[in-house]
Every structure is written in structure tokens, then in C-alpha cells.
Amino acid sequence: MKQLEGLSRKIIQVLWRDIKTYKPVAIIFIVFGMFFLSLGIGVVISNLHYLDKTLSAVGTVFDSRLEPQVSGSDQDDQDYNKIYRVRFFTNTGEPTIFTDTSTYPRVGKQVQVRYFPDNPSNARIYNVSAFWVAPTLISLVGAPIFIFGLCGLVVKLKSQKSIVM
Q: Which domains does the chain have, with CATH numbers?
């Protein structure tokens, strides 16, 4: 374990050796890493709260259409959103229809739906990729950037301390 720690310290020292402004660069890495790490963790926590407050049902995508995006820009370069209409039954048997902009369902496909029991029309298609994979990847991008910046700052501060002593 000590050898691994020594090796990682040497790698960080080599990577940071040629940079003349250690602290600002390390702080930039720490800030960017912390931003992505916090963003990913925040989305996961938000999704956990959402899943805790909603119920699950199976719905069917019965329609899809393209709708123009609302924007104040030039109408010649119009962007469109694909809107899916989904029908499902709540756990009380109430038929409900809602729209979603998920990117993957096809008309006729069954999808898992999450809805609020007191407002079933405020529902979303449950997509594992959107709920878990994307925020996890964002966190996994931020973590090494944050750790790299933190280690670089520690190495710089330790080297300054050893020079002073």
C-alpha cells in the first residue's frame, strides 16, 4: 500500500512539475471537479426523492409527433421536440394520458411510468439511463478531476512546507 501511495505521489508530482502556477490550476481542477461531482450527486438525490413520492405503472406509447421548440430566435432555423403520448392506468384503475419527451420509446411500446398519486397526469416515463446512468457518469467525470486537483494542491503545499522548514 505504501508503494502504491508513493507511486501515485510521484505521478502527481511529475504531472504538476512543469506548471508554474500550482495553486490556481489545482483550485480550478478542484472547482470543476466539485461542480460535476455535486451535479451528479444532486441529480441522484433528486431522483431518489422523486421515486419515493411517485408510484409505478405500465403504460403504452400510443402517439408521437414533432412539435416546434418555443424560442425567440430566427424561425428559419427551427428545432423540433419529439413528443410522446402515453396511456396508463393508475393503481386505482383511473385511465390517464400524459406527454413526455423521452428519446427512446416507439409507438405501441410498453414503458414503465412514474406518477404522483394525487396528480397522475404529472407523470414521466421511467428511463434507467436518464435516472441513473447519466448522473453517475457525470459524477465519475467530476471525481477524478476533483481528486487530481486536491492531490496536486496537497503536493504543492507539502513541498512549500518542506522548503520553509
A: 55-127 (2.40.50)
